[in-house]
Amino acid sequence: QEEKKQLTLKVEELERKLETTSAQNIEFLQVIAKREESIHQCQLRLEEKTRECSSLARQLEMAIEDAKRQVEQTRERAASRERAAQSKVLDLETQLSRNKTELNQLRRSKDDAERRYESRLQDLKDRLEQSESTNRSMQNYVQFLKSSYANVF
């Protein structure tokens, strides 16, 4: 009976330990369930963040491509404007050269005309002087004739 009593005590003690262990197992299972739920929630958030990152990466790639296109278009417009400006500069330089040539020709023509007019003016002055000289000579001759006739008559 003593043995039976000890075995009963041992069984009761083991049953208490079993209950305690069962309670701990239940607690551990609850903790594990909570952790698994937490892990599941974290995985869901991770998947959501991954999708969001993928979406943002695509948007970034599209924005980069758009920026590259805009840069290329801007470069093309700038190159086109530069070519147009260079063409206009060449046209203006050509026009300036033509205008300088024309101005030089006009200056030469003006100088030639001035020389001709100066020459003609000098010629006219000389002829006027000659004419005045002839006039004076004739007036002197007429005066001489008048005085001669006056002396004769």
Automatic annotation (TrEMBL):
GO cellular component, one term: centrosome
Primary location recorded for the protein, binned into one broad class: other
Keywords: Cell projection, Cilium, Coiled coil, Cytoplasm, Cytoskeleton, Developmental protein, Differentiation, Flagellum, Microtubule, Spermatogenesis
Cited InterPro entries: Odf2-rel
Signal sequence annotation: none
Biased composition (Polar residues): 94-106
Compositional bias (Basic and acidic residues): 69-85, 108-117
Protein family: Belongs to the ODF2 family.
Subcellular locations according to the entry: Cell projection, Cilium, Flagellum; Cytoplasm, Cytoskeleton, Microtubule organizing center, Centrosome, Centriole; Cytoplasm, Cytoskeleton, Spindle pole
GO BP of this protein: cell differentiation; regulation of cilium assembly; spermatogenesis
Protein name: Outer dense fiber protein 2
Region (Disordered): 69-117
